[in-house]
Write a structure and sequence with these properties.
Chain A is α+β, with helices and mostly antiparallel strands. Helices cover about 35% and strands about 25% of the residues of chain A. Chain A has three domains: about 45 residues, 2-Layer Sandwich (Uridine Diphospho-n-acetylenolpyruvylglucosamine Reductase, domain 2); about 120 residues, 2-Layer Sandwich (Uridine Diphospho-n-acetylenolpyruvylglucosamine Reductase, domain 3); about 110 residues, Enolase-like, domain 1, CATH 3.30.390. In chain A, a hairpin with a 2-residue loop joins strand 4 and strand 5. In chain B, strand 1 and strand 2 form a beta hairpin.
Chain lengths: ~290, ~180
């Protein structure tokens, strides 16, 4: 509780935060909801000299907007998980996101935690980076002077590591809206409800006439970042819902760790089971769509 | 934008933070690194929220900020400057007697050592404020972010159910559980 003192700076706009990051360099950390940074500070795992608060930052309202246009849903970085869970437009356009957001931590975490915070923290077990990779999301990141798009798969580089430049912040994330005949599913397994997931999986399936046309599948918690499973996606093509499970063998391209929570073999097993389950669930939704 | 003014140990500025806590307006200067929990306890003398885990898992520091439950150990006081904060102690009646939820916890033996109780009460207050009538399973799911090491949770869920039922039965929560006369 008695953390090393730091200097508190409030950024009224995201661009001010970039200015402060340039001024303070590595000594500074950005805080929004604080649900990842504050535990690290309280446990002594992070000791920033300066903490830059963007939780009240404005920029023409954009950081808090959820909007849909041209087949895409765009979510501002400061949208909380709680809001994403219940937002009607998000639920209509891309229910996979809402479903994943609802599984984050507990209600207090969801009430403060933000989309941008979760993406920038890039915890390999986190729900939102996983569904972003599954959805082929594109993030808008900016340092106040230059704004650039970056694909989720190119953004999440490893354990708590992203492609953000030192003065950049996530401004928003854009995902494709759920198209006709697409089904979706998100599942995770944790030791206790609300705990970090041991393994999580997400699937999007488009089927027609009882056969899978295409699918997008990703897993989290079994690598240093969320992993899209191209092998599984290819294997599912043309399968009926009944055949799908059998076509999902041992999940390749992952490198689960062994720790006090579970062995690598158990995580690998969980990955296969959860992928089978999300594919089955997504198939059902696709056929009902 | 003057620096320092705070103790030599602090490399951060001391910031004046103004909050309404349980209806009382409080302004206190404290280091910018003070969490809301530490500000409440050490700067403002509001000691019912407890420090448990520091990770947002246990819920013993839960308070309502502008009506929304948060872990006060994971929020910096300066981040919520100007907010309306309600702690478990703020759930009492204006005359200081136990409020309906507090009474339900008391009647159902929902506290043993009492450490988790302030956070449980705040979580329960949020459930009541939600306006819906959740099932027992839904109450348990809603409370999963609050850990109790004594009661086994049963009496706590009982108390929340009783308070919800009382609130439904005509806005006179806290009456004797079987004494409600109004039709639901």
């Amino acid at each position: 509780m008695f953390t090393r003192p730091f200097r508190f700076e409030r950024a009224d706009r995201l661009t001010d935060a970039s200015d402060l990051l340039r001024r303070h360099g590595d000594d500074a950390k950005v805080i929004a909801g604080g649900q990842s940074l504050m535990p690290l500070i309280n446990l002594g795992l992070a000791a920033p000299q300066v903490v830059i608060d963007i939780s009240r930052a404005e920029q023409g309202g954009r950081p808090r907007v959820i909007s849909a246009a041209d087949g895409y849903l765009t979510i501002g970085a400061l949208v909380t998980h709680s809001r994403l869970t219940v937002d009607q437009m998000a639920a209509e356009q891309q229910p996979l996101l809402c479903s994943a957001a609802a599984r984050i931590g507990n209600s207090r975490v969801r009430n403060r935690g933000t989309l941008g915070g979760s993406l920038a923290h890039s915890d390999p077990t986190a729900e939102l980076p996983l569904v972003m990779v599954a959805l082929g999301a594109e993030y808008e990141v900016s340092n106040g002077e230059r704004t650039r798009p970056i694909r989720a798969e190119e953004f999440h580089l490893g354990f708590l590591t992203t492609a953000l430049e030192p003065d950049e912040l996530v401004v928003s994330a854009r995902v494709p809206s759920l198209g006709p005949r697409w089904g979706w599913a998100f599942q995770e397994f944790s030791r206790r409800d609300g705990d970090f997931a041991l393994v999580a999986a997400a699937a999007l399936i488009r089927s027609s006439g009882g056969a899978i046309i295409e699918g997008r599948v990703a897993v989290g918690g079994v690598s240093d970042r969320p992993v899209r499973l191209a092998d599984v996606e290819a294997a599912l093509s043309g399968a009926t819902a009944q055949e799908a499970s059998g076509r999902i063998g041992t999940i390749r391209g992952i490198s689960p760790i062994s720790d006090a929570g579970a062995s690598a073999a158990y995580r690998e097993h969980l990955a296969q089971v959860l992928v089978q389950r999300v594919v089955a669930e997504a198939c059902q939704r696709s056929e009902a769509a | 934008m003057t620096d320092d003014g705070s103790t030599a140990a602090s490399n951060g500025r001391s910031l004046a933070v103004h909050l309404t806590v349980n209806g009382r307006q409080i302004t206190r200067a404290a280091g910018g690194h003070f969490t809301l929990l530490r500000w409440l306890r050490d700067a403002a003398g509001v000691t019912d929220p407890k420090y448990g885990c520091g990770e947002g898992i246990c819920g013993s520091c839960a308070v309502l900020v502008d009506g929304v439950p948060v872990s006060s150990c994971l929020v910096l006081a300066a981040q919520v400057d100007g907010a309306d904060v309600v702690t478990a102690a703020g759930l009492c009646e204006p005359d200081g007697s136990l409020g309906p939820l507090q009474r339900a916890f008391h009647e159902r033996h929902a506290a043993q050592c009492g450490f988790c109780t302030p956070g449980m009460l705040v979580a329960a207050a949020a459930i009541l404020a939600g306006g819906s009538t959740p099932s027992r399973a839904a109450i348990r799911a809603e409370l999963h972010g609050n850990l109790c090491r004594c009661t086994g949770y049963g009496p706590i869920v009982d108390a929340v159910e009783a308070a919800l039922q009382a609130a439904r039965q005509g806005g006179q929560p806290g009456q004797a559980p079987d004494g409600a006369s109004e039709a639901s």
